[in-house]
Design a protein that fits this description.
- Residues 109-119, 132-143, 175-192 have a biased composition (Low complexity).
- Residues 109-194 are annotated as: Disordered.
- This protein is mostly helical and 400 residues long.
- It has helices at 40-60, 71-81, 103-120, 154-157, 193-200, 212-243, 252-258, 275-285, 287-311, 316-330, 336-340, 342-345, 352-364, 369-398, and strands spanning 9-19, 25-38, 89-99, 148-151, 164-167.
């Protein structure tokens, strides 16, 4: 077989250069990570098509200041423009955007962006405990006094010009119970969860035929992180849509998924890294309601792990024992999440996100489940992609 037709290309990169409307030339590196290995020809074709779309996206910006430092938003908007038959990708990354021939301008813009984010991520005082009873939803303070950050979403995603203001709750990484904030870790980088997972994955590689106990314990940190991302994503979506009443324009759901912060905490430590933010929600909802929301995110994560194993051909007789070991390791000894996922297993997979949001809305007693489902769908897709990678290693270790 010719080298050109061998499906062994997992990622491909292109340097993208284009002029913005203010006639400044912007350049960056575009990288595609394919869900399945491609032939060199298919990979190059996909990269060229995506690079063309990126050039068009750059050219639609009014000025270079909209682009520098907004790589994550641009990558999310670019994914929305991929054509229907485009090869499936795990991730799409834009990096090192800069103004060609003027590095000082790019550096200044990045410093300004960093200063803004540090202001948003500064410490805040946890409000006094309260419950949801007797308070109108609009008066609840889950985000404390944290300032807002503007994201130019509509223009990047290809919809009419506009923007929305979305809160980014300030919180520092910590360990231990939710009600006890701990020490801060270093500021987060732009590297996404998938990049961190790939860097750590070799430590999960077990010999084929490993027992379910070992596989479940290796899978547990990924399950725990996915549960944390679903929890934070729902709470922030609820804040934006139900409490603040924002009408997110077409394409901004992908931006909402990007609002779930990247953490540099160790694998399995995502929820702990959002301790202060979650403590405010715990105070706002009350202990009982908050723990039910948290528990449902854990059930959802176990369900997504179950589905990921099933899609890889792992039979229930193998997958369920793995999950029965992963659940208590991920969630403090709790095994019941495996049984509770039955409410999702019994419905079509495409109905999972609406069903999850309906259950969560019923739990908190307020909100539009349909709007929340539309907003959280991109986040759940991202979680599914991450879980698929972890499930691949679990399947290989099982010897199936």
């Amino acid at each position: 077989m010719a080298f050109w037709s061998t499906a062994d290309v997992e990622l491909v990169s292109r340097v993208v250069t284009a002029k913005t409307k203010n006639d400044r030339r912007v350049r960056g590196k575009l990288t595609l990570h394919f869900a399945e290995a491609q032939t060199q020809g298919n990979a190059d074709d996909a990269a060229d098509r995506c690079a063309t779309l990126a050039e068009e996206l750059f050219g639609e910006a009014d000025d270079h200041e909209q682009l520098i430092g907004a790589e994550a938003d641009l990558a999310a908007a670019l994914r929305l423009r991929l054509p229907p038959r485009f090869p499936s990708i795990r991730s799409l990354d834009l990096a090192a955007l800069h103004v060609v021939g003027d590095p000082s301008t790019s550096a200044a813009l990045r410093r300004a962006s960093t200063t803004t984010m540090r202001a948003v991520a500064g410490p805040v005082s946890t409000p006094a405990p309260n419950t949801m009873r007797g308070r109108s939803p609009s008066s609840m303070p889950p985000s404390g006094d944290a300032p807002s950050a503007s994201f130019r979403v509509s223009q990047l995603a290809g919809s009419p010009s506009g923007s929305f203001r979305a809160p980014i709750s300030s919180a520092g990484p910590a360990s231990g119970p939710i009600s006890t904030p701990g020490p801060r870790s270093s500021p987060p980088t732009r590297r996404g969860t998938l990049g961190r997972m790939r860097a750590i994955m070799p430590g999960m590689m077990l010999a084929p035929g490993a027992p379910p106990e070992a596989i479940g314990q290796a899978l547990a940190p990924f399950v725990r992180d996915c549960a944390g991302r679903i929890l934070v994503g729902f709470l922030r979506g609820y804040d934006l849509l139900a409490l603040r009443g924002l009408a997110l324009e077409e394409g901004s759901a992908e931006m909402l998924a990007a609002l779930v912060p990247v953490s540099d905490a160790p694998l399995g430590g995502y929820e702990a890294s959002r301790t202060a933010e979650l403590a405010r929600w715990q105070n706002a909802f009350g202990e009982a309601v908050f723990q039910r929301v948290r528990r449902e995110s854990q059930v959802a994560a176990i369900y997504l792990a179950h589905m990921a194993l099933g899609r890889l051909g792992v039979p229930p007789s193998v997958g369920l024992p793995i999950l029965q070991e992963a659940a208590p390791s991920a969630f403090g000894g709790e095994r019941g999440t495996v049984l509770e996922m039955a409410r999702y297993v019994s419905i079509p997979a495409e109905n999972f996100v609406p069903a999850l949001c309906q259950h969560l809305v019923d739990t908190v007693g307020h909100g539009d489940a349909t709007l929340l489902a539309a907003a959280l769908a991109p986040l759940v897709t991202s979680v599914e992609e991450d879980m698929a990678i972890a499930a691949t290693f679990a399947r290989d270790a099982s010897g199936v």
